[in-house]
Amino acid sequence: MTHQEHLPFLALSDSTRRTILLMLRDHNMTVAQVSENFDVTRAAVKKHLTVLPDGGLITTTKRGRERMNAPNPQGLAPVLDWLGFFDAFWDDRLTALKSGVIKVMQ
Amino acid sequence: MTHQEHLPFLALSDSTRRTILLMLRDHNMTVAQVSENFDVTRAAVKKHLTVLPDGGLITTTKRGRERMNAPNPQGLAPVLDWLGFFDAFWDDRLTALKSGVIKVMQ
DNA sequence: TAATCGCGATACCTTATGGTTTCATGTCCT
DNA sequence: AGGACATGAAACCATAAGGTATCGCGATTA
């Protein structure tokens, strides 16, 4: 069977991490800034901010005493590749998604 | 934050389940048939064959003493919807995926 | 320099998860 | 009817996962 990149799927399997990704899509954020948006402790958020780069979904760079977290869109590639195996099956919702993209490309 | 359908992501977070989905893409299969393709016990496979319909990714129908498992492509919709939030970020790989689709649509 | 700030890391707890074994039940076939 | 067959379900186990509290350390800043 085709080798599957597992870590990106694992990273996406948690609701908090998906929310973090959506937040980072709009603004790069430090660990503390991300933590402010959740009820759990900073340590818990920090753990998610370890799983996400493990899955290649974000990149982190240290700047002084803080660390910036930025989304890495290419990290979604393995997921997209996998979904690509279902080309022939995709439904109308995907078709709509695609058609939206087509407009952009033309 | 946007409500997120969690179960489909959960279902996709396990390698065995992803492999099962790829198998079912080609042929509908019974529990036993799916089990034949893995080293783990039938009971373990059966558990996966409970998580998958929970996530809406497969449908199961009982026929006599066996149960057929079939992929449900629409179950991927929540995942696709979520990925849609990253439209502006998507990389070349997705672009290629899309362009393949464009050919089909024209 | 001293106090504070942002992080990282560790130890620990609880629950979820994937796995096994075993047993029960309904179905098919002779 | 009786046996074989396909599945379902329960009890149990080990480990992974998400959470907490706590301590340590480099970087800032008063």
Instruction: Please tell me how large the radius of gyration of chain A is.
Output: 16 Å
Q: pLDDT below 50 for ≥5 consecutive residues: which ranges of chain A? A: 100-106
Tally of helical runs of chain A: 6
CATH class of chain A: Mainly Alpha
CATH superfamily label of chain A: Winged helix-like DNA-binding domain superfamily/Winged helix DNA-binding domain
Instruction: Give me the side-by-side strand order of the main sheet of chain A.
Output: 1-3-2
- SS-based structural class of chain A? alpha+beta
Order of helices and strands of chain A: HHEHHEEHH
Strand residue percentage of chain A = 5-15%
Described by the principal axes of the CA atoms, the overall outline of chain A is elongated
In the CATH classification, which architecture of chain A applies? Orthogonal Bundle
Residue-averaged pLDDT of chain A: 85
Domain module tally of chain A: 1
Give the termini separation of chain A.
37 Å
Biggest chain-to-chain interface with counts: A-B, 40 and 40 residues
User: What share of residues of chain A is helical?
Assistant: 55-70%
Oligomer kind? homodimer
* Main beta sheet of chain A: 3 strands, antiparallel
